[in-house]
Amino acid sequence: MVVVGGGLAGLSAALDLAEAGVPTTLVERRPFVGGKAYSFHDSVNGVELDNGQHIYLRCCTAYIALLDRLRLRGSMRLQEQLRLPVVDPRTQQMSAIEASAGVPAPLHLLMSILRYRHLSWRDKAMLGRAMWPMLRMGDRGRRRLDDVSFGDWLRARGQSDAVIDRFWDLIVLPTCNDRSDAVSAQQAILVFQLGLLRDPHGADIGVAKQGLSVVAEAALGAFQAAGGETLLGSAARALDHDGERVTGVVLGNGERRAAAGVVAALPPHRVAELLPEEWRGRFSALDQFELAPIVNVHVEWDRAVLREPFVAVLDPSVQYVFNRSLITEQDGPTQWVTCSLSGAHAEASMAQGAVAEAAIAGMRRAFPAAAEAEVLRWRVVKEMEATFRPRPGLGRFRLGTTTSVRNLLLAGAWTDTEWPATMESAVRSGQAAARGWLERT
Ligand SMILES: Cc1cc2nc3c(=O)[nH]c(=O)nc-3n(C[C@H](O)[C@H](O)[C@H](O)COP(=O)(O)OP(=O)(O)OC[C@H]3O[C@@H](n4cnc5c(N)ncnc54)[C@H](O)[C@@H]3O)c2cc1C
Questions:
Q1: 3-state secondary structure of 428
Q2: Nearest-atom index, ligand 1, CA of 9
Q3: Which residues of the chain have pLDDT under 70?
């Protein structure tokens, strides 16, 4: 087998295939694995940074099982129970969305919602009108909502623009990488059902204490230990085929690699580039995907400006702030923090200095300690193709793992896992591709 793409989807597929005894080669374009989730040495600032802060939730069961399999739980920091502090820069008041210990879902959120200072009492009273139907909705009912925008669905249940902005989008934006108005209701509702409404621990938040590449590198190590072959820095240029089936891949240097089957663990438009012209019509769904950016602003302050590991900020130029010094257990007089900006269409086309300036100004408004502090260094990382956009109507174009070409399988966070573009979706898709192959042979 050849697995093309060394992101979490490709690594998961390759690992399962190799461990099942299938001779497998992993082909990755870049000289390192990890795809959208990696860390790198920032030579200008002399520190290791993630390409973008990644979180996972306790409901990400496939990702957590992978961490366990790679013995990486100790490299992670997972909350015992959900606590998400939220600050309003206009008042600098902090209020948290948090679970009450020992209380079943969804009542575990009730106390914190009653205490939540960033919504009016009227808005709080209206929240139930949207939460209750989500709680009762089954999988089929949810899937029927793919064509509807979550914003429209919420407004039809009495949610005001303020409550969408100050509550619903707080969760939708980082998980779906877009605002409620641009996201399919089926996609957003799945997030709330899995994370907040069905299990009191579903949304406990986890982060890596080390650079993010630790996961991909451990997966690569396990793959190689199982006998897998790796071609790093080697792009696939095309699929080789005999008209009916795939016969291998053509690499960038023209070398042909024969294979019994291929897993294309790539973003949708990259899969399309590899397909022979005569198969393009069968895979026209790939053209339906649009990609969306995430921008991260890494800032070193000359002193501690943040006490919590992370805080959501009701300011679009800041969004979520992560205390990297605390998370990575690197105490010192200075503090590294990372602002993660999802759905960052505006920031993606701004100059890096302007993005950093806006985020730093936003942090100064939100955190009194930052208002007094100096910025020592910063680095902006723009990921222009961070995720697919889960727009209304996209669900029907998310392709399954097995395809009409018998020995061509697909994997990637964008395939039909139902999850938004996450590490969980990537791992699930890769494992499904390996299963699909093993069941066919
Ligand atoms: C900044 C940022 C923040 C994010 N935050 C979160 C988060 O908090 N939580 C979360 O769960 N998810 C988050 N995500 C999303 C998550 O990282 C992705 O959904 C997931 O990693 C995608 O994995 P994948 O394997 O499907 O695809 P990719 O990671 O895109 O992997 C595809 C791989 O294929 C390689 N490739 C492409 N073309 C070729 C070719 N022709 N030949 C060989 N190789 C090729 C690429 O180099 C890449 O390594 C974030 C993403 C970004 C960018």
A1: helix
A2: 25
A3: none
